[in-house]
Design goal:
Elements lengths: L3 E6 L20 H11 L6 E5 L2 H4 L9 E4 L12 H4 L10 E5 L8 H13 L5 E7 L27 E12 H7 L11 E4 L11 H14 L1
Parallel strand pairs: 1-2, 1-4, 2-3, 5-7
Antiparallel strand pairs: 4-6, 5-6
Length: 221
């Protein structure tokens, strides 16, 4: 089997939703929900919470299977930083591959991650990312249609043939990242798409997404 560990990245300096990882969410926090799942993922070689702030390190204490992976302060600054800086800690993971588990998607299940793990072990692509089918109409920067080019189709549920990234997880080759400083080449099958259930793909990036996700999570749980 290929060696692979799982890493959940967290920081306090989120821009669009301040304190997103630790603010109250359905009686817990997004980080606590993610760590509960991370703690159960015994199919990985190691399970890490990757943080720089000491306040976040304390969140891992109740979870005996979760290790702390130290990040540098420059890796968690506000805004978008170079990948080789933000994710430099990947090079400290003693596995050939790294599964990056996103704590901003509270509906993703351990079972979904296990299926992705099994799929990864059974296949041989340079990298992987989660994806969902979509019928959305997408246009390029000049207004040219990219997905729906059929003038007879005014729906978003007919002949779905496209996929969009779900950002629930990525699987990265550590040596490639250490050499290149980024995750993949963005060519066919690099990353290779791993389909996951659409209902698990609510990604919290804005205040309205936080509120709506919290309401739905409380209803379902």
């Amino acid at each position: 089997m290929k060696t692979i560990s799982v890493v959940t990245n967290a920081r306090l300096q989120s821009t669009r939703v301040p304190q997103k990882m630790v603010r109250p969410f359905a009686g817990k926090s997004l980080l606590q929900i993610a760590l509960e799942k991370l703690n159960e993922m015994d199919f990985f070689e190691h399970r890490y919470l990757a943080v720089a702030e000491k306040q976040l390190m304390a969140y891992a204490a109740p979870f005996e299977n979760v290790e702390i992976l130290q990040r540098k302060s420059e890796a968690v600054k506000q805004g978008v930083n170079p990948q080789k800086v933000t994710f430099a800690h990947y090079c400290d993971v003693p596995s050939d591959y790294i599964c990056v588990f996103n704590p901003c998607l509270p509906f993703v299940t351990v079972e979904t991650i296990k299926k992705a793990f099994d799929y990864f072990q059974e296949n041989d692509h340079p990298s992987y990312t989660s994806a969902v089918e979509t019928g959305d109409w997408v246009f390029d920067s000049e207004g040219n249609p990219v997905t729906n080019t059929n003038p007879q189709n005014l729906t978003t549920n007919k002949d779905v043939q496209f996929y969009k990234a779900a950002h629930a997880f990525h699987i990265v080759n550590k040596e490639f990242f250490a050499t290149k400083g980024y995750h993949w080449e963005f060519t066919r099958d690099d990353p290779h798409m791993v389909k996951i259930p659409e209902e698990q793909c609510i990604d919290i990036d804005t205040e309205i997404e936080f509120d709506l996700s919290q309401a739905l999570y409380m209803q379902r749980n």
